[in-house]
Amino acid sequence: MNRRGTRSALVALVLATAVSVSFTAAAEPRPADTAPKAQVRAAGPDAAVLKRQHVLDELANRITLNKAEDRRHELPGFAGLVVDPDDGVLRLYWKGVVPRKVRSVAASAPAGTRVEFLPARHSAAEVVAGREKIVTATKAGRRVLAGDADWHTLTVAPDGSGLPLAYEPEQGLSTQRTRATSAALETSAEQVTGVSVSVSTEPRPQATGRQNDTSPWWGGAAIISSVKPMGCSTAFAVRLKTGRPGLLTAAHCGDWGGFTDPTGEIVGGVGAAKLDRDTTVIDVGTTSGTVAGRYYDGPWTTSDSKSIVRADYNNNGDYVCTSGAMSGVHCNLRIYADNSYVHLDNGQFVSPVIKAARTDMSNVSHALGDSGGPVVTTADGTYGPRMAARGIISAGIGGPVVCVPGETRNPSTRCFGEVGYVAIRRVLADFELTLVTD
Fold this sequence. Notes:
Elements: H1 6-15, H2 36-41, H3 47-63, E1 78-84, E2 89-94, H4 100-107, E3 114-119, H5 124-139, E4 151-155, E5 163-167, H6 175-193, E6 197-201, E7 206-207, E8 217-219, E9 222-225, E10 231-233, E11 237-239, E12 245-249, E13 258-260, E14 266-274, E15 279-283, E16 291-296, E17 305-311, E18 319-324, E19 328-343, E20 349-358, E21 366-367, E22 374-378, E23 386-401, E24 415-423, H7 424-431, E25 434-435
Parallel strand pairs: 2-3, 5-6, 8-16, 17-23
Antiparallel strand pairs: 1-2, 4-5, 4-19, 7-23, 9-10, 9-13, 11-12, 11-25, 12-15, 13-14, 14-15, 16-17, 18-19, 18-22, 19-20, 20-24, 21-24, 22-23, 23-24
């Protein structure tokens, strides 16, 4: 088997065209003391790229019947897809004969875009079924994989090639011993799952737990748990099924008790939480507070904001932005895995996790303290005032990278080049919530 680094292979598959992207400065004004480099990093790809992404995402949603990221495997033969907005191509991987209805939708691609069909070794259903065998055994405390290490990430490869498995080797382990462990994991995982498995080594994803927000509360603001000594961020405003106002954040930031902002103002108490979605719903109605469908957009010092107008699904190849109270907004992040099962460093099992990587090596994806913050993208083909919700920041992927000096609230925080976040449409459905839009 090919033992090329799994994460590197996945990123290469999806990000191959990212180097051709051009960047534009953000349209909204920024504080005078903001460094020019920060303004560029807060901008999205150029308008033509975003317009094509918008069109290709609509095509992808039609082909997948608007199914959630972790339910597309229910489509017989479907293996995966990759959106390439730089070239205007939707690459669709399929095992077996592509249904006539799917080809009909593909044939309706607007001028300047097209759909390419590619054969897949495995269907997504086969890979998901195999992955579930490993997950179920691990949760039950049964070791079914050989080797001296535990997996932390299981991903459905977007091209139908199989199941990428990642684990963190023991510190100080020799190269020879690491290779032997990886080989044992790969062989046993293929025996258990019945699909092709590729193994890579990388640090276990880390749960990455605006300065003085006030009611009506927005996304991207700083919050502090009353029961955990950590600062996090808010994601999106919602309405609970009771009609009360709420805010979303990460469950590892606090799944009981309440939250305040850094000045001590009470935001609300925990209304509901699901650890396997790494999501907490803050009931703002407990304090008679209100919420608004906006999020902070810009450096961590900014008071600028943008509107949230809807919630969208995620597709491999899409460009997205993060926003957090510790490091502000980071754009030009590109999705390379849209259906991962992750075992965080705090012990939580979380799915479906979307993983996105920076395409600009002078940028970061987010920092510790941005957990719970919003992930967004274009709602209309522009990086303008109207944005679509994509997810809630959960984890740092692939280990820390160097932070950009002066661009984080706490200069000693840790930054990451890749982000793991939970899919917003799945969260809204699970909690029976309505997204508040502006």
